[in-house]
Amino acid sequence: MIKRAIMTGVGLLCWLGLGQSFAATYSGPMETTRWQVDASVFACRMHQDIPLLGEAAFARRAGESQHFYLTELNRQLKPGNAELLSLTPRWRAIGQHYSVRPLPIGEGDVVSLDWRESQQLLQELVDGRQLLVRGDSWYESDTPVNVVIEPIRFRQALSEYQSCLAGLLPVNYDQVRRTSVHFPGGTEEFDDIDREVLDNLARYVLADAFITALVIDGHTDGLGLRSENLELSQKRAEFVVAYLTERGIPEDLIEVRWHGERYPIATNRTPTGRAQNRRVTIRVDRFEPDPETLARAD
């Protein structure tokens, strides 16, 4: 439940510990503090630098949900429990200030909130409110640490961030690097669900300039003659190759192989196991560029 209190001036400073000499407060100056957006089809980040501490960021990777992160480069907050507060901005004389929620402070990303929780923070900032993380110092438990996240120029950045979200790919590399499609018994065509899987894979590969190869392997279950299974696994693999090249994947990027029943991943004694073995797998190889290469690409 949200706790609410009306405070101004000295009362607010005392409530937050901001008016005490032992409190450490991290906040950027109004003149230079702003939200910035890093946008691509692979990920969207909207972030604010917090001088001498780190940054606050809303981030969403293609194929995943949005998260909010508070990251410290200069460690100040002690791992454990902290509190998230919503404040009337300091340029307003009177307003309402309240506790939003308890906040766990971790070891890596100091704060990491999921989609639902991050949406609540977005709304607070859209309403022009400051967010304040209040916790204990890692070096002295009796010393409070206050981290202020400003709403300055937030709506303009949010519009750019939302435009980025609308253009994200449906999947990311981790989701396509090992892909499988499955086939009904005795056939060389897959269903609509697997078509969507391959459509998403093709969109990702065409967008990522650092993809080096697609290795496609055809397999069957253990029913039937080995020679027939080898031929069927070839047809399945080539069917997938044709599907991807029709969607723009260059043929010289593709290596195709077929193995028949040779490499089962489940038992061939049950219908469920045989269904798992009737597959074509796609391995997506990618060159991992160094930061300088990425900077030149941008």
From TrEMBL:
<keyword id="KW-0472">Membrane</keyword>
<keyword id="KW-0732">Signal</keyword>
<dbReference type="InterPro" id="IPR041544">
    <property type="entry name" value="MotY_N"/>
</dbReference>
<protein>
    <submittedName>
        <fullName>OmpA family protein</fullName>
    </submittedName>
</protein>
<dbReference type="Pfam" id="PF00691">
    <property type="entry name" value="OmpA"/>
</dbReference>
<dbReference type="InterPro" id="IPR006664">
    <property type="entry name" value="OMP_bac"/>
</dbReference>
<dbReference type="InterPro" id="IPR050330">
    <property type="entry name" value="Bact_OuterMem_StrucFunc"/>
</dbReference>
<feature type="signal peptide">
    <location>
        <begin position="1"/>
        <end position="23"/>
    </location>
</feature>
<dbReference type="InterPro" id="IPR036737">
    <property type="entry name" value="OmpA-like_sf"/>
</dbReference>
<dbReference type="Pfam" id="PF18393">
    <property type="entry name" value="MotY_N"/>
</dbReference>
<dbReference type="InterPro" id="IPR006665">
    <property type="entry name" value="OmpA-like"/>
</dbReference>
<feature type="domain" description="OmpA-like">
    <location>
        <begin position="170"/>
        <end position="288"/>
    </location>
</feature>
